[in-house]
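your task:
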Amino acid sequence: MTGRGLVEGGVGGAVATAAMSAVMLAGSKAGLMEDQPPKHIVRAALPGHSRRRKPGEGVLAALAHFGFGITAGALFRLVSRGRRTPMPVGIGYGLAIWLASYQGWVPGVTVLPPISDDRPGRPAVMAAGHVVYGIVLATVLNRFRSRDDR
């Protein structure tokens, strides 16, 4: 894998994270989730009470969310070795990230409850957001691949 491939994966991850963030914001506006999960995670990581709002948490949450999405995109590109990504594989990757995070490490560090114990709206919004992440990631990476095939 070349550095270019990792950059392409990172770009795909950034674009996919932006699309996913739009789904999350729409879910918040619709009243399906009170606060963005990245804010909960950053809030818990910062000093002080883990449930209290903290100055700058919104910016830090956005940076952390994009950093995670960019890294996940680069990792996917690395694992796929630059091959075309079938849409179901991209969707599966997005959902695997959701399950590993929201049924695994996020409740493990007691930031949010596991999916099965969470409020009804948040898991649906987050699952939809991760499906969108996978679709957009696959689309962007496939466009890079199509460009290389020309």
